[in-house]
Amino acid sequence: MKEDKSLLFIDFEFTMPERKFHPQGFFPEIIEVGMVCVLNQKIERKFSSFVKPTFFPELTERCKSFLSITQEEVDHGISFYELTSILKQIDRPNKRTVITWGNMDMRVLKSNCVKHHLPNPLKGKNHDLSMEYKRFFGDKNQTGLWKAVEEYGKKGTGKHHCALDDAMTTLNIYNLVQNDKRYLEEHQPTTIGDRIDKKNILKKFAT
């Protein structure tokens, strides 16, 4: 991937149904957002907030347990309308390249916008870093975010499934992959000619 100057690393957490019970018409709603804005390879801004779900406001026990999020936290979160306003403001004026781990974040954002009859606030390119990681390392299966950073011998930032911490971890993996790509570009593989001592070959045939 060509390195962009203006990047937005983003992670959302969503509502979840109980395993055996799916309310009629249920769809995942964003309940937490974490964002890291990067300009010219420097962190420009961080933002995190809980988001109050509109259509299914009561969190399931499964959701609260898995994400370690309480009902009170999302009840005091910003509205989805406020979230889209913040995203729109952050996206200006550069139309940042949005980088996520997996494609679920952008799919849920678009779905939630449709349900709220709002336009998608992010106009820049979307880039799924997990797919680049998969191609770069030749993995057959898509790797989880924290497993990927551990494969680099590093640790994730903060707590897994905390939106801002996951966004920061995505940024860290992005930087690691970019460094590896630059290293490979600067250190071209040796050719067969580089590996053969031409003087010895000529001497051998001269005798």
Automatic annotation (TrEMBL):
Domain of life, per lineage: Bacteria
GO MF annotation terms: exonuclease activity
UniProt KW Hydrolase keyword: yes
Entry keyword set: Exonuclease, Hydrolase, Nuclease
SMART domains according to UniProt: EXOIII
KW Iron-sulfur (keyword) present: no
Ranges where the Exonuclease domain occurs: 6-183
Classification via InterPro entries: 3-5_Exoribonuclease, ERI-1_3'hExo-like, Ribonucl_H, RNaseH-like_sf, RNaseH_sf
Family annotation (Pfam families): RNase_T (PF00929)
PANTHER family linked to this entry: 3'-5' EXONUCLEASE ERI1-RELATED, 3'-5' EXORIBONUCLEASE 1-RELATED
Official protein name in the record: 3'-5' exonuclease KapD
